[in-house]
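4.2 Preliminary Data

To establish feasibility before requesting continued support, the project team ran the inverse folding procedure on a target of 169 residues. The structure was first converted into the token representation described in Section 3, and no sequence information of any kind was made available to the design step. The complete token record follows.
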């Protein structure tokens, strides 16, 4: 757990630098979760990373880092305990944050599911349900009109080889 917890904290710090250098305000505030939503909306469409966008390469480590950032932001404002079982990619995806009131959230899973079409569950509204003070974003990330597109799942494996060496520019 300690190694994975270190990866969570290091990845959250790394994504702050990467997002900030790309014009997003990632500052560990609940309001900054809107920036994660904006980033996801601008760099993915219907479950697929936008070609040439910042999710087009190193998707697994970047989704893990975004989930780590979401979790660390909520942890800093609400407290709680990081919980994991096992090791490897299953532990990375399944890492959970148990909140003081007894609720448990899975921020990495929520970010991965946000990539999928019509999910919208990593939006700031989810943080509000967890007890944080955030307002829903307007505009970016809204689903396009015209019906539901076919669901195409990403064909990558989530792997946290070394997120510190992945470039986000």
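Position-by-position output of the design step:
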């Amino acid at each position: 757990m300690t190694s994975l917890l270190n990866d969570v904290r290091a990845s959250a710090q790394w994504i702050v630098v990467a997002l900030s250098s790309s014009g997003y305000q990632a500052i560990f505030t609940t309001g900054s979760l809107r920036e994660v939503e904006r980033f996801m909306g601008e760099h993915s469409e219907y479950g697929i990373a936008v070609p040439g966008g910042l999710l087009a390469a190193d998707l697994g480590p970047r989704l893990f880092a975004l989930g780590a950032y979401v979790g660390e932001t909520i942890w800093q404002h609400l407290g709680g305990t990081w919980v994991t079982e096992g090791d490897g990619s299953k532990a990375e995806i399944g890492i959970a944050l148990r909140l003081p009131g007894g609720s448990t959230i899975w921020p990495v899973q929520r970010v991965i599911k946000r990539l999928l079409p019509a999910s919208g569950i990593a939006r700031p509204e989810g943080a509000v349900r967890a007890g944080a003070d955030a307002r829903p974003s307007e505009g970016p990330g809204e689903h396009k009109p015209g019906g539901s597109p076919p669901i195409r799942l990403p064909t990558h494996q989530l792997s946290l080889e070394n997120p510190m060496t992945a470039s986000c520019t």
